[in-house]
Amino acid sequence: MKIISWNVRGLGKSRTVGRLKQRLRDENHVIIFLIETKLSSEKMARVRSRLGFQNRIDVAAIGRSGGLSIGWKHSCLVNLQSFSARHIDVIIEDDSEGRKWRLTGFYGAPEEQYRADSWNLLRSLNQNNTLPWLVVGDFNEILLASEKQGGLVRSARQMDAFRNVLDDCALDDLGYSGPWFTWEKGRTHANNIRERLDRGVANSEWWDLFPDFQLKHLSHTFSDHCPLLINTRGAQSSIKKTWHFRFEASWVLEESCEEEVKRLWLNSGGEFLDRLRYTSSGLDAWFKKLRSEKRLTRKDLTEKLERLNNLIPTDDVLGDILDTKIALNFEMDREELYWEQRARSNWL
Q1: Would you kindly state where each structural domain of the chain is located, as residue ranges?
Q2: What's the whole-number average pLDDT of the chain?
Q3: Contact 332, 22 (CB under 8 A)
Q4: Residues in domain Endonuclease/exonuclease/phosphatase (predicted)?
Q5: Tens-digit pLDDT profile for residues 197-229
Q6: Cβ proximity of 345 and 329 under 8 Å
Q7: Class of domain 2-231
């Protein structure tokens, strides 16, 4: 099972929702936990439906702040236990063997003076728990001074309080792969701040249930937080899908499209239908190659972004990060047009 946790910093813009939809599609997720949606329950229901999730639990934003949402596919059974402005707690049954475990999406108070209330909430959720338990989200706190770079030095008292609550609840940090930080602000070296505020923690029973799990910090082009991907079964091979020919609206954005159609038609022979079949077959092959190149381009840009995020944030590096995000967004614009047409075709 794949789980995405992300502080999206608002879903009020259509383009932001489109970017989120692409990011989720890439990972073939089953459960999503979204933080700071900044939407009412009604608006969040429309967004979640656009993302492809019919099942959900939404906690409305208060004014223009907060808002939580858990969405899931019909392949797993999710039972709500409790919720608040800071958490959504559910029990999951995700396979035919009837194994049950607990998932808590958590959002720690951004204000330091209310952080103790967040830790007390976590302690209350831990009472009488007998299930494997995973807590994931934005805790708005770090465990170690090494998890912060730039800005003011974090108070040892604050970090101690975070470590104490994890000890009280018998929760251990899951670790990660990818860039070490999950939150960033500042576009120059002088004001750049990076911290690991988002994480997954679990009790020993959950570790025993999913010994091959993976947690990864994913790259992103919007929000100042990165998404967390938790795969309970570790790496899995992808399933290839059958390709069917169709003319895609995104092709007209390619400079080579018109010349390719002309070339294929002029090189074809025989009756009209034979020439049509030859041209469509050629376009099919051209598009497969084009898609492969685009995937490679997007993959290269994503990998470049990950490499840049691991470098010392000098002004030149931060400038390269911004340029790479712009280029990656441009590639996503092309792909979004492709998927919009496909969704419309499926609806028809």
Answers
A1: 2-231, 249-347
A2: 85
A3: yes
A4: 4-225
A5: 999 999 999 998 999 999 999 987 778 999 999
A6: no
A7: alpha beta
Strand 100-107, strand 133-138: pairing: parallel
Q: How many CB atoms lie within 10 A of CB 346?
A: 7
Cα–Cα distance, 221 to 16 (Å, whole number)? 10
Q: Which residues contact 48 (CB under 8 A, 6 or more apart)?
A: 56, 58, 69, 71
Altogether, the residues listed in the chain come to a count of: 348
Q: pLDDT-derived band of residue 70, with 50, 70 and 90 as boundaries?
A: very high
Q: How confident is the model at residue 48 (pLDDT cuts 50, 70, 90)?
A: confident
Tell me the C-alpha to C-alpha distance, in Å, between residue 132 and each of 99, 102, 233, 305: 10, 6, 15, 35
Would you say 30 and 63 are in contact if contact means Cβ atoms under 8 Å apart? no
Give the position of tokens 């008292």: 157
Starting at the earlier edge strand, list the strands of the sheet with 87-93. 77-84, 87-93, 100-107, 133-138, 198-202, 172-173
Give the chain as a 3 state SS string.
Answer: CEEEEEECCCCCCHHHHHHHHHHHHHHCCCEEEEECCCCCHHHHHHHHHHCCCCEEEEECCECCECCEEEEECCCCEEEEEEEECCEEEEEEECCCCCCEEEEEEEECCCCHHHHHHHHHHHHHHHCCCCCCEEEEEECCCCCCHHHEECCCCCCHHHHHHHHHHHHHCCCEECCCECCCCCEEECCCCCCCEEECCEEEEECHHHHHHCCCCEEEECCCCCCCECCEEEECCCCCCCCCCCCCCCCCHHHHHCCCHHHHHHHHHHHCCCCHHHHHHHHHHHHHHHHHHHHHHHHHHHHHHHHHHHHHHCCCCCHHHHHHHHHHHHHHHHHHHHHHHHHHHHHHHHHC
Q: Is the dihedral of CA 197, 185, 151, 177 positive or negative?
A: positive
What is the pLDDT, as a whole number, of residue 33?
Answer: 95
Q: Is the pLDDT of residue 92 over 90?
A: yes
Please report the pLDDT score of residue 21 as a whole number. 81
For 286-345, the pLDDT digits (tens) are 877 776 666 657 778 888 888 888 888 888 888 888 888 888 887 777 667 666 665 555
CB atoms within 10 A of CB 99: 13
